[in-house]
Amino acid sequence: MDTDLLLKTLSKGHGLALPDQEIILSMLGEEKFSKNDFLQHDNERSRRLYFIKSGFVRIYFNSPEKQITYLFVREGEFVTSTSFFDQTRAEENIIAEATTEVLSINYPNLMLLMHSTDNISRVLIYFCNLYRRMALRRLRSLLEDSPEERVRKLFARHPDILQKTKPEHAASYCGISKTSLYRTMKKLK
Q1: Fewer CB within 10 Å: N-end or C-end of the chain?
Q2: What is the pTM for the complete model shown?
Q3: What angle do CA 102, 95, 69 make, to 5 degrees?
Q4: Signal sequence: where (predicted)?
């Protein structure tokens, strides 16, 4: 199991001693998803927290008319349904936009980790707070940024987004139509 990227990412929050690393690694599973495989379906209980080793996933909501893309998650980042932490049914779908390899942990094992050592607990709390801040930044962008600014930010974070997902998903993320996405991209060049 290749865990270098995970350990490097976790060490950004706080240093992890070798015994703490071994405890964390002993709780993880490894999974591989093909393009268009679901990591999470809406209306099902969220069972796992994922760390993306390679690949790319999209989080979206179903509305009566269309899918509404909320977030893209790439290599070196964590992803789960927001319902994972209270163990309720998910409102969102998480789908692999490319072949995606992950390390994952189920909820009972995450709770065991939270109580295993103070240092591991601090690291996990740090990453929960990062996830919360990321969600708040996303919400704030939707409320305050112009569509042009949302497109600029999307391409700054994911320069190759149109190679990884359909243009309509990128447009949905920005809250605009596919035509407006292309028009805005032309303006930004």
Answers
A1: C
A2: 0.90
A3: 125
A4: none
